[in-house]
Every structure is written in C-alpha cells, then in structure tokens.
Amino acid sequence: MDTYVCLVCNYEYDPATGDSDGGIDPGTKFEDIPEDWVCPVCGATKSNFEKKK
Prior knowledge:
This protein is mainly β and about 55 residues long. The chain has strands at about 5, 10-15, 50.
C-alpha cells in the first residue's frame, strides 16, 4: 500500500499504522479514508496529500 504525504506539514500517512486518533484503522488504504478526514498534525484536508514517490 502507498504512503501519502501532507503537502502542508510533511506528515506521512502510513496505511500499515493508520490514524488511531482520527478513527482510521491500521490497514486502511488512503483511498478508503473518508473525504472529511484531516491531517492529524496540521488539520489539512485530504486533498492536500500526494502519493510519496
């Protein structure tokens, strides 16, 4: 599964760990995260993330 990076603060969403504080279970692909999810560090929207190269 791909890792995605926040373009605002460089937080990396790793699907292997998910985002427990945001209610995202480990193993959840970025594409499957709800559209209203926000970066747990800076609050940026999901549209501010891009796939890590």
